[in-house]
Specification:
71% of the residues lie in helices and 0% in strands. It has 133 residues and is mostly helical. The termini are far apart.
Amino acid sequence: MRNWLIGLGIAVGCLLVSWALLVLLARRLPSGILRDLAAFIPDCVTTVRRLRKDPRVPRKAKIAIVFAGLWVASPIDLIPEFLPVIGPLDDIVVVALALRYAGRQVPREVLIEAWPGETRLLERLLGPARPAS
């Protein structure tokens, strides 16, 4: 049991270090695609936190958003995090799908308010705005 707890502690520590590295890279990199990729997961976590508390977000969208946030926080992944470049890919896909789903449920302005990063990245993720019916 002790070895299992030590292993779990090491895994959680590695996950926290990788997140800290992403945040550091997101702040230090010059503008461009690398900075956008490094900032994507931290921006998604901030967006999930903000949308979860927003009363304008319907319950189904909140469930999808919280699921995506838990997926990112979970140490269990389809693609292990320690693989360079492709490690966070499953996290990005799950969060992108949840945000696209929320984009159909929530007014676009609410998502843009909650997104701390470059709005052009979120606009690209959400796709073209649908005309009001």
